[in-house]
Input
Amino acid sequence: MPPSGIATSDRIDSLPLPIRHADDIFVDGVWTPADSSERRGVIDPATAHEWGSVPIGNSADLGAAVSSARRAFDRGRWPRMAPSERAAVLRRAADRLELLAQPLALTNTLENGTPVAESGGGATNAASIFRYFATLAPLLESDDVRPAPAGTHETLVRRDPIGVCALIAPWNFPINLVVVKLAPALLAGCTVVIKPASLTPLSVRFIVQALTEAGIPPGVVNVVTGSGELGDQLVRHPDIDKVAFTGSTEVGRKIARQCGELLRPVTLELGGKSSAIVLPDADLGVLRSALIRSTLRNTGQTCYISTRILVPDSRHDEIVATIVGTVAAAPQGDPLDPATVFGPSASVAQKESVLAHIAGARAQGAHVALGGDAASMPAPFSAGNFVEPTVLTQVSRDMSVAREEIFGPVLTVLRYGDVDEAVDLANATEFGLGGIVFGGDETVALQVAERVDSGSVGVNFFASNHAAPFGGRRDSGLGVEYGPEGLHAYLTYKSIHRRQRKA
Ligand code: NAP
Ligand code: MG
Output
């Protein structure tokens, strides 16, 4: 922790933040004053200090953004350019974005409390997503001619951009979760309207800046800030052709209902409640080194992390001691300090929700092995949303904390007898997003990983891969992002039948 008593104004005023108060939306390639005069503050969750603001867009703002994207799609150059030319723009944008890494990281950290150790990698990660999708251009350019099996004719299969896309993102990774939609959408030739989360409305501007500097044509990318209600209007807008959403299962279900009625394609990346199965032969050194990143990343505010730790009866106490020791040793404090591992929760509502989950667990008989309360911090952090990193043991499968997403710095430990019971426990939630198997024999661990019913599982660590599909089963979502499979979500197919060409 830095010395107590530093004034919040001193802390933030001196930082190189290029944008604090915005009164505009991004339409037709320029930041344009919003029609709405309503504003929402941007609040540092570590100190409760309001340091920025943005418009709460109204339906006129939304209409302007969607019309801009529609025009750019129907009449603009972008969908008609060669995919390799679009890829070149994505590569240039990646280079520009990396130059913006520092102000982007500071902005992100002051919006949602993500420690700079994490947000500092945001620009590089986003750049690598742009570069990865740029490598897929040949997939769109290759001629796909398929002879009819009956030998009567042949068909030219075209992969057309799906159209104008609504991209709706949550606050936990405000750059990554936009770019993972934006990069494939742009490579495909789509145009987009982005609605960032209300807590994180400013950091997306660095992506816009990078793309503008890279020469993206006006109208291809549009941004409107505003509430969930504006997100709902965007989903239902008649000029939208596809919706890509990351966020809660509750809102995802609402969006799925709207898109079902409209027959509008939709990709949903939703909540998770993943398990780390610690096999009896697990190396506890491996568990210790992977634990924070794979179970508590971003102060527990990551969708795929394995916050349910399943431990064998035979090694219960030893493994709990390793978990408690590792979590207790990770520093909590100012997210601007590069040494900080645990920052604040992103909002007051999030902090209260996490504390309510812990209180519910206590009432249902769980044991608090570490933490369990709001963290007491020195000024100015005493006003922030800090929750003590918490480990709950004696958790049983029917407790709410074993089934519901907590989205805070809280681990739950459940015991198992044999491996079949561990797999059964891992699969006993409504979600199916991530998971890990820790085991000394990686062949056996892989066999266990294959039995976990989820979209992604790691063996002895967890890391997603831009080239591999990422998505959830059951309540964790519909469809996938990343990989060629993620690009397909932004394409629509057209089969042109013709007489067979003579060789
Ligand atoms: P959220 O409340 O569902 O909000 C997500 C986004 O949707 C925000 O931009 C929100 O706007 C907007 N929104 C709210 N109501 C809407 C509606 N009726 N129609 C259209 N848009 C609407 O989620 P969150 O609290 O920001 O994020 C946390 C959740 O995201 C967690 O459940 C987490 O697991 C999930 N998540 C999933 C993944 C994944 O890849 N599967 C990744 C990260 C996070 P406002 O901010 O203005 O309300
Ligand atoms: Mg929310």
About this structure: The chain has two domains: 10-270+478-492, 275-465.
